[in-house]
């Protein structure tokens, strides 16, 4: 399976769920997962905040944090994202827009599962948080 972006990292603390394609319930679930993964990887509040902006911290700063969150949300299996499971958490009216983002970011490829999760998320963040 080709790697695709981590659509689950779609939220900014100040933005509504609808702005980033997920239901309110999925956003709440993702917030809980982010906190859990941040604790597991000793991610500071500042790094967690920055991970939800266009200024995503470098891989060496947050490591497998994006991978942890994607796995716990159920969209990362084996060494790649599962595009069907990602599509299932996106609101129907946002799917066309996100398909275009996936196509743009699908070429991003890290050497390990953690790097692929990070690289895919960073690609997405460069799109989502600038708009």
UniProtKB/TrEMBL annotation:
PROSITE patterns, sorted: PROKAR_LIPOPROTEIN
Keywords noted in UniProt: Signal
Signal peptide (from-to): 1-17
One Pfam match: PBP_GOBP
Keyword field contains Signal: yes
Domain of life the protein comes from: Eukaryota
Protein name: Uncharacterized protein LOC108567229
Lineage: Eukaryota, Metazoa, Ecdysozoa, Arthropoda, Hexapoda
Gene: LOC108567229
């Amino acid at each position: 399976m080709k790697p695709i972006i981590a659509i689950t990292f779609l939220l900014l603390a100040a933005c509504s769920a609808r702005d980033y394609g997920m239901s309110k319930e999925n956003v709440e679930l993702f917030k809980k997962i982010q906190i859990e993964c941040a604790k597991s990887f000793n991610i500071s509040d500042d790094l967690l905040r920055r991970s939800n902006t266009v200024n995503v911290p470098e891989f060496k700063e947050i490591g497998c944090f994006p991978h942890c969150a994607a796995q716990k949300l159920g969209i990362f299996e084996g060494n790649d994202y599962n595009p069907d499971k990602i599509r299932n958490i996106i609101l129907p009216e946002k799917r066309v827009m996100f398909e275009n983002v996936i196509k743009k970011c699908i070429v991003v490829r890290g050497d390990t599962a953690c790097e692929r999760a990070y690289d895919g998320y960073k690609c997405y963040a460069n799109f989502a948080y600038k708009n």
